[in-house]
Write a structure and sequence with these properties.
Elements: H1 2-28, H2 30-47, H3 49-57, E1 60-85, E2 88-115, H4 118-125, E3 130-131, E4 138-141, H5 143-148, E5 158-181
Parallel strand pairs: 4-5
Antiparallel strand pairs: 1-2, 2-5, 3-5
């Protein structure tokens, strides 16, 4: 029982550290975050045909231009993002997560979620946070699937693309991730 309590405490500590480290950065300059998110989305849609195809029919797109992930046994990740609806900013969000297991390393990457219907957008905006893996179906698109995907084969609620990976993170373990709207 003490081991479970210790593990839970470590995970909470990692998540809190990640939250505190980046929270001030978002408050300092949302304009820069919006520019970075727009640039990341533009680059993604210009280089990945499936992303371009989905962007035309998505109800909204949530873009995290930079997520930082690090861990050694216990790890965490954090990043700030922008929700675009009809090309306009509809909100600012953060994603944070904690993990434990056999893992080591650090990396940064971008992440874009194409929300294909109002159900997916509502799941993001209606709650105190959106837990990835709970609620609408999220399909992570890899390069192989992206080559054969079109809007007629896209039938899921949310399609996610990971892009711009830098660094090395290796491991096997348990992970949780939550997306939360930031206060205006």
């Amino acid at each position: 029982m003490n081991t479970l309590f210790s593990l839970r405490s470590l995970l909470h500590g990692a998540a809190i550290s990640c939250l505190l480290a980046s929270g001030a950065a978002l408050a300092a300059d949302r304009g820069a975050l919006e520019r970075d998110a727009r640039a990341a989305l533009s680059k993604l849609t210009s280089t990945v045909p499936a992303a371009k195809s989905l962007s035309g029919s998505a109800a909204a797109v949530l873009v995290f231009p930079t997520i930082t992930k690090a861990g050694l046994g216990v790890g965490g990740q954090y990043g700030d993002g922008v929700l675009f609806k009809g090309g306009k900013v509809a909100g600012y969000y953060n994603t944070s997560g904690a993990s434990y297991g056999l893992q080591a390393g650090a990396q940064q990457f971008g992440y874009a979620m194409f929300m294909m219907n109002d159900k997916a957008v509502s799941a993001l905006t209606a709650n105190e946070g959106f837990e990835v893996g709970v609620g609408p179906s999220v399909v992570v698109i890899d390069e192989g699937k992206a080559k054969t995907m079109t809007t007629t084969t896209a039938k899921d609620d949310i399609y996610a693309f990971i892009f711009g990976q830098k660094g090395l993170m290796a491991g096997l373990g348990m992970q949780g991730n939550k997306i939360t709207r930031l206060k205006d």
